[in-house]
């Protein structure tokens, strides 16, 4: 192999190795969390809030129960979700809602590698954010509490509480009609693992293309 070719391939291999080391943490450290999203969240307004729930079981167990704390919102209504029942826990027979628990039908639930989406209609507080601490229970008895607060400028905790960012502006007094749906589409922020995988594949493709072009150019010159 001629000297220019040898130098090129050594440089290319070193570049690919360094790029892989840089991209690898992004693909391996990201994990899916229970997330709260909304397309119409306004301070003090009524909004549809979606909770995206991934199954991260290492034993193959399905997610069968999700409980969400609703003490930070009011006027709560739940969306009918096929295969699940929703129970509102109130402060007294007609008092404010404290939490909601979705329970899967027998032999149902969210399987490994899947996610579920649950929605509520609620009046949001007059604040910048609202937190929804949640508890996820698996069929094998495993319980995961998503209740750790996140602090700006610090690393994200292992089990952060689902937190919704609320936009400013005049409150919306529109009453949302929650319709039963067979499936639900998650919001874009709920795909960290897939996004990182796409970045890795795209970066690898670009590096391989560069190597091929460089090899062709050196082959013509030598």
Automatic annotation (TrEMBL):
Transmembrane regions: 200-219
Signal sequence coordinates: 1-32
Keywords in alphabetical order: Membrane, Signal, Transmembrane, Transmembrane helix
Segments of this protein annotated with the region Disordered: 149-194
Composition-biased stretches (Low complexity): 180-194
InterPro entries xrefs: YcnI-copper_dom, YcnI-like_sf
UniProt entry tagged with the keyword Signal: yes
Residue span, YncI copper-binding domain: 33-165
Keyword Transcription regulation applies: no
Protein name: YncI copper-binding domain-containing protein
Species of the source: Mycobacterium cookii
